[in-house]
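Request: Not sure, any thoughts?
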Amino acid sequence: MTYEEINEMMMEIGLPFAYHHFAEGESPNPPFTLFLSPGENTFSADNFMYHSFKKLNIELYTDEKSPDTEKQVESILRHYHIYYTKTETYIESEMLYEVLYEMEV
Protein backbone atom coordinates (compact mmCIF):
# COMPACT_ATOMS: atom_id res chain seq x y z
CA MET A 1 0.00 0.00 0.00
CA THR A 2 1.34 3.42 -0.86
CA TYR A 3 1.15 6.45 1.40
CA GLU A 4 -1.57 7.86 -0.87
CA GLU A 5 -3.65 4.67 -0.58
CA ILE A 6 -3.26 4.67 3.20
CA ASN A 7 -4.28 8.34 3.27
CA GLU A 8 -7.41 7.51 1.22
CA MET A 9 -8.25 4.67 3.61
CA MET A 10 -7.86 7.01 6.59
CA MET A 11 -10.23 9.51 4.95
CA GLU A 12 -12.81 6.73 4.53
CA ILE A 13 -12.75 6.09 8.28
CA GLY A 14 -14.32 9.52 8.60
CA LEU A 15 -12.45 10.81 11.67
CA PRO A 16 -9.84 13.58 11.90
CA PHE A 17 -6.38 12.06 11.35
CA ALA A 18 -2.72 12.90 10.98
CA TYR A 19 0.52 11.07 10.33
CA HIS A 20 2.30 10.37 13.65
CA HIS A 21 0.97 13.43 15.55
CA PHE A 22 -0.95 16.66 15.28
CA ALA A 23 1.00 19.91 15.48
CA GLU A 24 1.11 21.48 18.93
CA GLY A 25 -2.26 23.08 19.68
CA GLU A 26 -3.96 21.58 16.59
CA SER A 27 -5.17 18.30 18.06
CA PRO A 28 -8.92 17.91 17.45
CA ASN A 29 -11.40 16.82 20.07
CA PRO A 30 -11.75 13.04 20.34
CA PRO A 31 -12.42 10.79 18.60
CA PHE A 32 -9.49 11.09 16.21
CA THR A 33 -6.89 8.81 14.67
CA LEU A 34 -3.17 8.80 14.02
CA PHE A 35 -1.27 6.52 11.70
CA LEU A 36 2.41 5.77 11.33
CA SER A 37 4.73 3.29 9.70
CA PRO A 38 7.27 2.21 12.35
CA GLY A 39 9.29 -0.06 10.05
CA GLU A 40 9.05 -2.96 7.66
CA ASN A 41 9.59 -6.68 7.39
CA THR A 42 11.27 -8.07 4.31
CA PHE A 43 11.27 -11.45 2.63
CA SER A 44 14.65 -12.30 1.19
CA ALA A 45 16.81 -15.22 0.16
CA ASP A 46 20.25 -15.63 -1.39
CA ASN A 47 21.09 -12.01 -0.61
CA PHE A 48 18.09 -10.73 -2.60
CA MET A 49 15.01 -8.95 -1.22
CA TYR A 50 11.87 -10.31 -2.86
CA HIS A 51 9.21 -8.38 -1.01
CA SER A 52 8.80 -5.72 1.66
CA PHE A 53 5.87 -5.59 4.07
CA LYS A 54 5.46 -2.16 5.62
CA LYS A 55 4.30 -2.05 9.23
CA LEU A 56 1.30 0.22 9.76
CA ASN A 57 -0.15 1.34 13.08
CA ILE A 58 -3.48 3.08 13.36
CA GLU A 59 -4.19 4.63 16.75
CA LEU A 60 -7.77 5.51 17.69
CA TYR A 61 -8.19 7.99 20.55
CA THR A 62 -11.48 8.49 22.38
CA ASP A 63 -12.40 10.18 25.64
CA GLU A 64 -14.68 7.27 26.56
CA LYS A 65 -14.90 3.65 25.50
CA SER A 66 -16.61 3.67 22.09
CA PRO A 67 -17.33 0.28 20.50
CA ASP A 68 -19.22 2.01 17.66
CA THR A 69 -16.17 4.10 16.74
CA GLU A 70 -13.97 0.99 16.88
CA LYS A 71 -16.39 -0.79 14.53
CA GLN A 72 -16.14 2.21 12.19
CA VAL A 73 -12.35 1.74 11.94
CA GLU A 74 -12.55 -2.05 11.76
CA SER A 75 -15.12 -2.06 8.96
CA ILE A 76 -12.74 -0.04 6.76
CA LEU A 77 -9.84 -2.39 7.56
CA ARG A 78 -12.03 -5.39 6.66
CA HIS A 79 -13.12 -3.63 3.47
CA TYR A 80 -9.44 -3.43 2.46
CA HIS A 81 -8.87 -7.08 3.55
CA ILE A 82 -6.28 -6.02 6.11
CA TYR A 83 -5.42 -8.41 8.92
CA TYR A 84 -4.72 -6.57 12.18
CA THR A 85 -4.09 -7.12 15.85
CA LYS A 86 -5.81 -4.86 18.36
CA THR A 87 -4.81 -3.69 21.83
CA GLU A 88 -6.24 -1.07 24.14
CA THR A 89 -4.87 1.12 26.89
CA TYR A 90 -5.94 4.12 28.91
CA ILE A 91 -3.54 7.07 28.91
CA GLU A 92 -4.13 8.60 32.31
CA SER A 93 -2.10 11.78 31.70
CA GLU A 94 -4.23 12.56 28.61
CA MET A 95 -7.47 11.08 29.97
CA LEU A 96 -7.87 9.22 26.65
CA TYR A 97 -8.40 5.64 25.57
CA GLU A 98 -6.05 4.44 22.85
CA VAL A 99 -7.02 1.50 20.67
CA LEU A 100 -4.01 0.39 18.64
CA TYR A 101 -4.41 -1.52 15.37
CA GLU A 102 -1.15 -3.08 14.17
CA MET A 103 -0.83 -4.55 10.68
CA GLU A 104 1.45 -5.09 7.69
CA VAL A 105 0.57 -3.74 4.28
Q: What stands out?
A: The mean pLDDT is 94. The CA atoms of residues 34 and 59 lie 5 Å apart. The chain has one domain: 3-21+30-41+52-104.
